[in-house]
Amino acid sequence: MEIYDYIIVGAGIAGCSIAHFLQDKKVLIVDKAGLCQKASNAAGAFLFPKVGFNTKYTKLVNDALLYSFDCCETLKINTNKSGVLILPRDEKDIPKFQEYKKTFTLPYEEKKGGFFFESGGAIESQKTCEKLIENVEFKQIEITSIKKEKNFILNNSIETKNLILATGWEEIINIPYIKIRPVWGERIEIKTSLSTKHHYHKNCSVSANFDGI
Q: What residues are paired with 171 via a beta bridge?
């Protein structure tokens, strides 16, 4: 039986990112639906700053945003970095926005009642996942059994020293990856002649016009 250093269950953006940074090991990434087919495929894959008070969570998100741009540049992944205009959702949000700006750490410009950040972009999830695991073995299989002996035995046929679950909200054999609920969302692509030079976020996110989409 072939032994891997790591097996990653779940081939969305999280699993593929982990696989990428472990690619110098013997790694296998698996997913029953295929590469980037569930939540990561439905997402718009926007790279936007978090607007809010400068809490540890806000700092984490915005540090990760800058890291993502650097990582994508290294991997030659197009981020469509044209900036984003983040607008208040309603009148109640307007005074909150004025308080938020006192603690912003990213450069911004006040524009149309909101904040314009140059650090705003969008990526293609599928292409990004393909790029992340181009040097990693991938199999489309469903994991139906896990045994822990000296190593982990999956489906009575695959052995690994380390097992990483990156299945999002979906449980695997009654083992929850993390106790979170699924979040509803939808990505819609529209052919348009509308000229938008940058991205927008209000109650939903709208990408800039790239090739009429």
A: none
Helices (H), 22-104: 39-42, 56-75, 93-100
Helix (H) or strand (E) holding 121: strand 121-122
Q: And the tokens for 98?
A: 């004025």
Report CA-CA distances (Å) from 169 to 9, 14, 82, 165: 13, 12, 32, 11
Question: pLDDT for 19-64, tens place per residue?
Answer: 999 999 999 999 999 999 988 887 778 999 999 999 999 999 999 9
Q: What sign has the CA pseudo-torsion 71, 73, 79, 83? A: positive
User: How many residues does the structure list for the chain?
Assistant: 213
Q: How far is CA 84 from CA 62, 97, 200, in A?
A: 14, 15, 5
Name the phi and psi angles at 179, rounded to 5.
-80, 80
pLDDT tens digit string along 152-187?
Answer: 999 999 999 999 999 988 888 877 666 777 777 788
Rounded to whole angstroms, the Cα distance separating 200 from 190 reads: 15
Work out the burial of residue 196: count CB atoms within 10 Å of its CB; fewer than 13 is exposed, 13-18 middle, 19 or more buried: middle
Question: Do 52 and 61 meet the contact criterion of CB atoms below 8 Å apart?
Answer: no
CA distance 146 to 159: 10
Quote the CA–CA distance of 138 and 10 in Å, as a whole number.
10
